[in-house]
Each structure stands twice: as structure tokens, then as C-alpha cells.
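Recall the central idea of this unit: under ordinary conditions, the amino acid sequence of a chain determines the structure it adopts. In this exercise we apply that idea directly, starting from the sequence alone.
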Amino acid sequence: MKNHIETRADTSEIKEEMRNFKIEVRSDIMKLDAFNPKALEKNGNKIKEVERRTEKTEQGMEKMNQQLKLINKEMEDSLIHFEMDRAASYLRFQNVEESRDENLEMIMAELIA
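Accordingly, the structure predicted from this sequence is:
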């Protein structure tokens, strides 16, 4: 069992360790406080750069989307005209009467020309 003097010595050592630890922690906090604004500014700049690139990418995608819509509309129009021409050709040939002594290919060529 420890006597009163040994206990006091242990307590003094613990107090000294606590003081040193407290000084060390304060020093670390001061270093972090000095580092924090720099890190925040750096992170803020990175965030702005990412936002700028994201906006630029979105604008490019919107432009591409508009171009694709225009191309799709042109394709639809072309397909409609093709179908109309095909239907008109079928209607022209629908009224052609076939006989054995006529050349059907020649008649169709004359109708097309």
C-alpha cells in the first residue's frame, strides 16, 4: 500500500502529464485553426470548378439532345414521305389491267416515267 508521500508524488506526476497533454492539444488545435481556412478555400475552389464543369457538360448534353430531336424529326418526315410515295405507286399500279399479250413491266415503266 502506498503512503501519503508516494500518492502525492503520483498525483504530481499525473498533473504534470495532464498539463503537458493540454499544451500539446492546444498546439494541435491552433495548427488546425490555421490549416482550416486554407483547406476550406481549396475545397471551395474545387467545388466551384466541379460545378462549372458540370454546367458545361449539361449544356453540351442539352445541345446534343436538341440535335437528336431535330434528326429524329427529319427521319420521321422522310419516312412519312417514303410511305406516301410507296402508297401512291401501289395505287397507280392497282388500276393496271393485265392481259397476256402485254408486257406488264413496260406498262409499269411508262407509268413511273
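The chain has one domain: 4-112.
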